[in-house]
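INTERNAL AUDIT FORM
Audit reference: QA-55
Scope: verify that the stored structure record matches its stored sequence.
Auditor: D.O.
Record contents follow.
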Amino acid sequence: MPARAKRAPTLRRRLLFSFGAIIALLSVFSALIFSVVQQSHRFFNVVQGELFGIADLSGAVERLYGAADNYLHSGRKEYLSEYDRELAACTTGAESLATQLPGVLGPEIRDIGNMVLSMDELKSVAVTKYAEGLEPIYVNRYVAELGRLRNYTRSECSRVLSAYMVARAGEAARMRADLVKSEGLSWAVLALVTATCVAFALRMTQDISRPIHELAQSLVSFAGGRLDLPPIERRRKDEISTLLESFNLMTERIRGLVEEIRRKSELESELKAGEIKALELENALKQSELETLQARINPHFLFNTLNTLATLADIEGAPRTRAAVGSLAALLRAQLDSARGWVGVDEELESAEHYLRLQEIRFGSRLRHAVSLDPKAARLRLPGMTLQPFVENAVIHGLEPLERGGRVRIEARIEGGELVVEVEDDGIGFDPSKPAVEAEGGSRRHEGMANVSRRLELLYGRQSVFVQSVPGEGTRVSIRIPALAL
């Protein structure tokens, strides 16, 4: 088997490689920053939980003393229940903190737990004496002793809290230093990514924009009648290079054909009438060959190139240009697909909407549009490019003459077993009773509409297009055809 040919570089592969490098750099940077942030987040969560635990233990001791004091002064049983809950909270909290706090703070928390147990023993004695009918003056002595233990325990909690803040200060300083380092790293990586993106943008501008600009200038000169254009230099082997090669080949062949036609035209004046007719036929054949040659640039390639330009516009931060090129590419794709004859209603409406978006770029706020599609009618079929002449007529002849502009509405629905598609504008309208040939330049405003109407009438054997228009109010075109699935 012959060796497989080396694949030529393409715009897509170059773009993917450049984006891949940038994404890989950003991924590594994000992973490093995420690691530092996660470590800091875990540390501060631990510190917050331990601080809240110490505070909760101190609060539970206060509530424990309050419940005992309230019972010994009122004798109500619900205070004993409250006391039992707070005692459980104190002992559980002290044991949990003792296993979490660093250094000597754990044993000190256990000492606070032992103080709570001492308070509980003193409370039990006081409750027993209270039940035996001890005089209030002696009960107050127990309450005072409980208060003394409460104050001592609260003081110990404050001391442990201060010692904890000192113990964690070093770790917090190290964590802060790591965050400062990560911030510096962030700026460095940001500068690197920015430089990479700028270099990528400059390189892509040089590799793509410059040859396209040269091609555009050559096309303008060629359309202006300059046939002696020098060939455009090919710098790379990619889609743009293929486009330039096709243009060079086309111009070269056209020059030869034009020279040949010119020579034959000079001979026509010297021939008899019959010979002139023969030469006219031959020239017509050559003209057809010329037109065929001018269309040799593959329309599918042009579609792919437009998509590439849309991607480039997106990269260079030109969203309106990207949207316009995308709409033009979609409109070209729709025209290519219409060659198969039948299209879905949703595809036809999408093509019309792309055309309207392109016109909105031209007209600005003067042109608005709305498209409504019944989901049941989406996959019904109709001949390709049916709506385009009506939409163009609404924009160019209905709304363009108005300084205020106007609105185009397109709606597709099922009605009485038929597919109904309407194109309506609120433009200048016209008098349907007048002939289609208008006074301005003798142009046929409704020729495209008439062609579509005749085509539908031949397809379905009946009138399918109905036009309603009032001068100064607008025009509505209704298309009614059988509802057939695609």
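Auditor finding: record pair retrieved intact. Residues 1-6, 284-298, 436-443 have pLDDT under 50 and may be disordered.
Action required: none
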